[in-house]
Amino acid sequence: MFEILEKHHIGPGVNRAVISAPEIARAHRPGQFIILRAHADGERIPLTVADKDPEKGTITLIWQEVGATTYYMGTMSVGERLADLCGPLGKPTHVEKFGTVVCVGGGIGVAPLYPITKAMHDAGNHVITILGARTEGLLIMTDDMKKVSTELLISTDDGSFGIHGFVTQVLQDLIDKREKLHLCVAIGPVPMMKAVVNVTRKANLPTVVSLNPIMVDGTGMCGACRVEVAGKTMFGCVDGPEFDGFEVDFDLLTKRLAMYKGPELISLNKFKESPRGCECGFPGGAA
Amino acid sequence: MTEKEAQPKRPKIPRQKMPEQDPIRRARNFYEVALGYDNDLALLEASRCLHCKKPFCMTGCPVEVDIPDFVEMVKAGDYVGAAWKIKEKNALPRIAGRVCPQESQCESKCVLYKKGKGEACAIGRLERFVADYAAMHGCELPPMPEPSGLKVGVVGSGPAGLTLAGALIKRGIAVTVFEALHELGGVLVYGIPEFRLPKAIVRSEVDELRRLGVEFKTNWVVGRIETVDDLLHKKKYDGVFIGTGAGAPLFLRIPGENLNGVYSANEFLTRSNLMKAYLFPEADTPVAKGRRVAVFGGGNVAMDAARTSLRLGAEEVSIVYRRTMDELPARAEEVHHAVEEGVKFQLLCSPLEIVGNEAGWAVGVNCQKMQLGEPDASGRRRPVPIPGDTFHLECDTVIVAIGNAANPLVPSTTNGLEVNKWGNIVADLDTGKTSKDRVWAGGDIVTGAATVILAMGAGRKAALSMLKEFGIGC
């Protein structure tokens, strides 16, 4: 179980792996996530499923190396196994024919956005996808996204590829010159989601965001993943991970995500000094 | 001189204390607090048992262990036999011997105690001794019956589910236990701390069930991978037992509860126990190591959280509780241990607000002083605020240990399963039968948060009810 069948670097510090997990592949719905432990002393971390193949019994995970677990996974090879993989967790995305749906993905957030975009497309929506990254090398899954989008717009902060600017500018242009848009789905770093919501709120365009709070069990037992939505405390793992973007307290989420910054660095440094950590040589500009 | 008077009077043997780690030392380590009897202490304590014809002690045991019989075997030095005698009724004696509140169960019915003449026979300590002895001396498994061809699915590997699994497998029923976490044992591994119940002991009890033939599936979220209905209809299980526990933490809903440094007891204990944060950075999972810690609540979980905080290195740990020492719902032994180790008690005190700094971290709690008023529905005197009497308690970590609600994941994905207004599954307390055909439930998901042994009792009753329904004699 949980054997790595394929693995590729798809960007600096960004990996894509196909993993054997037949039950999860069969049961997974767009928007749901998994929790994994890479090894016996590892943390439980949530990752959203980027793709699946129920026939082959595999799921695809995409991750950026930012902490001890994700760096460790970066050093894993085909044939190795994750210690634990639990899921699918969280509520699936509400998919129906809305009309025109704008899917906005930033950085590594494009990975969880892909199955949702595909589902929206399959449901008969006109899907306009906006992908953004700091620079060309950090853009991921553009070919996959192209196949499931009616229109695909790409921007980079430094102008190295596509439109020069932020996804929010592309979104604003779209809103300014476009006929009716019915729904926006935005997944990416917290500042990006917050900025997207600031744009869509003015246009009164309903916006779904997928949150990534710190989690431990992922089944509603611990409450580590508390987020505030419309002034109410919700658990990201069981009430989410998707919420109404207009109502999310992004500042609280940012603060809570920083809760273990110190220990996270200690863990990472410890891993870097381990035999496995030395081996990987830490390619690429993570985080 | 009558015959009776001629007998030499037996010397009165006092109840034998169990050796413990020194409080000062143990408050800074995670090793087990209680060290257990040795042979001599066990024999001495067992000799106190009167072997009553009418064993009242058994009526106090939720799983009806044959107490006089097993104690008699201890007297004879047959410790392994004594362990199997217990295991006829209780699959997890190493665990029950450690976490059962015996003083309010079997030992409260002991004739030695009831006559007002002295202290009860230390049944729990003897149970622990023989079960540990049997585990150390690798006793052989009992003969197993022919497979019945029936199979039962168990949702959750906590004390209720494990007990049921043990009872059914010994009657030839195949059992598969589904667990959402990566380790087996439920609250026994994520909730109860290492220093009260070493995880190696839970593993050994689980391993024994595995050797008996129970199948375990970890990382398996029933309700998500497949539902209870799938288990019954697609996977053709003859019965399903739901023992998912009370796994949804309650908060006070006061301002500041989402500040950094504020934990549910579930999260704090899960990080420390299941994820071994006390070993950080050897284990990757961190937990805030507070300097000054406030724990809200007065139950066993609050005591566990407070004592864990001390062991993680806190300078000051305070239990914040609305009533007085007399009303603390925690077991007397746990309170005693906490006091010995240096936990402070802010009594008659109710949190109003958690105060935070700019960066979003907790820095203190504003508290309301209370006094006891008229008795409430529970018979305890209701705490009422003393107007104007508030104070500030400085702290950097807050642990909310005020209880758990039912986790809705399994009930909400099971067709036709009745739940009450709190979300607990409605089940017959004598049989565990639910409103749904071939589905039983027991433990905290039915009763709300209670004790390990009551969950074990519910698992045992459900197992007996299943056997009856399957037409297998008990």
Can you characterise this structure?
The complex is a heterodimer of chains A (287) and B (474). With 287 residues, chain A is an alpha/beta fold. Chain A has helices at residues 22-27, 68-74, 110-122, 142-147, 167-177, 190-202, 250-257, 261-273, 275-280; strands at residues 4-11, 14-20, 33-37, 45-53, 58-64, 84-89, 100-106, 126-133, 151-156, 163-164, 183-187, 207-210, 226-229, 232-235, 242-244. In chain A, the strands form 3 sheets. Chain A has a 7-stranded mixed β-sheet, sandwiched between helices. In chain A, helix 6 (190-202) links the parallel strand 11 and strand 12 (207-210). In chain A, helix 2 runs parallel beside helix 8 and helix 5 runs parallel beside helix 6 (190-202). In chain A, 52% of the residues are buried. The model of chain A is unreliable at 283-287 (pLDDT under 50). Helices cover 33% and strands 17% of the residues of chain B. Chain B is built from 19 helices and 15 strands. Chain B has helices spanning 3-6, 23-26, 39-46, 56-59, 67-75, 79-87, 93-99, 111-114, 123-136, 159-169, 187-190, 199-212, 228-234, 265-274, 300-311, 332-341, 409-412, 444-447, 452-469, and strands at residues 151-155, 174-178, 215-217, 239-242, 248-249, 262-264, 292-296, 316-320, 344-346, 349-356, 362-375, 381-394, 397-400, 404-405, 439-441. Chain B has a 5-stranded parallel β-sheet, with helices on both faces. A 5-stranded parallel β-sheet of chain B has the order 6-13-7-8-9. Chain B has a 3-stranded antiparallel β-sheet with strand order 10-11-12, with no helix packed on it. In chain B, helix 5 (67-75) runs antiparallel to helix 6 (79-87), helix 6 packs across helix 9 (123-136) and helix 15 packs parallel to helix 16. The longest helix of chain B is centred in the C-terminal third of the chain and has 18 residues, at 452-469. The mean pLDDT of chain B is 92. Chain A binds chain B through residues 23-24, 27, 32, 37, 41-44, 68-69, 83-89, 216-217, 219-224, 226, 228, 233, 238, 252, 255-256, 258-260, 263-264, 266-267, 270, and chain B through 180-182, 190, 218-221, 224-226, 247-249, 251, 253, 257-258, 260-261, 263-264, 266-267, 270-271, 275-276, 280-286, 288, 359-360, 407-409.
